[in-house]
Design goal:
Elements: H1 2-13, E1 16-17, E2 26-28, E3 37-39, E4 46-47, H2 66-70, H3 77-91, H4 101-110, H5 118-121, H6 125-134, H7 145-149
Antiparallel strand pairs: 1-4, 2-3
Length: 154
């Protein structure tokens, strides 16, 4: 996660939003070197101008931020996706789910998830705190990748 936050902070510093962060788009450059993570698939990445927002939904359903569904979003969507990825890495399941795409989108839009699952009982409070600071519905209050990189858990 440290490497992912570093990469996203770098992209955001250059006003680039990946828009499709998910485990499938995170690879190891070297098979046995966990410190060689690379982000791939910039096919729907976007360069945002200052104070610019996008309204076309892009990305993979499970990792979409609520504001993508609502139709006005910026680079903060990548930070939400990092929160979803971290949740999955620690729990083995996504925080938002449903029987079909519509119900998944409704779950995301509500922004309600639980850390009261068996895998989280073994996680540190710092790890759960970081998830809580990334999976914030209001993008202006959501942790940035740089803040996440500097979080005590990381």
């Amino acid at each position: 996660m440290r490497q992912i936050f570093s990469a996203i902070a770098y992209l955001h510093h250059h006003n680039i939003c990946h828009r499709d962060l998910k485990p499938e788009n995170i690879l190891l450059k070297e098979k046995h070197n966990i410190e060689s993570i690379k982000l791939i698939d910039f096919g729907i990445a976007k360069i945002f101008k200052e104070k610019e927002y996008e309204n076309q939904p892009k990305g993979t359903t499970m990792y979409l931020a609520p504001e993508v569904i609502s139709g006005k979003y910026g680079k903060e969507v990548d930070n939400w996706a990092c929160g979803v990825i971290l949740y999955i890495l620690l729990c083995g399941r996504p925080p938002f789910y449903g029987k079909d795409v519509t119900s998944i989108l409704m779950s995301i839009k509500k922004g309600i998830y639980t850390l009261d699952r068996e895998p989280f009982y073994k996680c540190s409070n710092e790890a759960k705190d970081l998830i809580a600071k990334l999976l914030v519905k209001d993008p202006s209050k959501r942790y940035t990748a740089l803040k996440a990189y500097e979080h005590p858990w990381v």
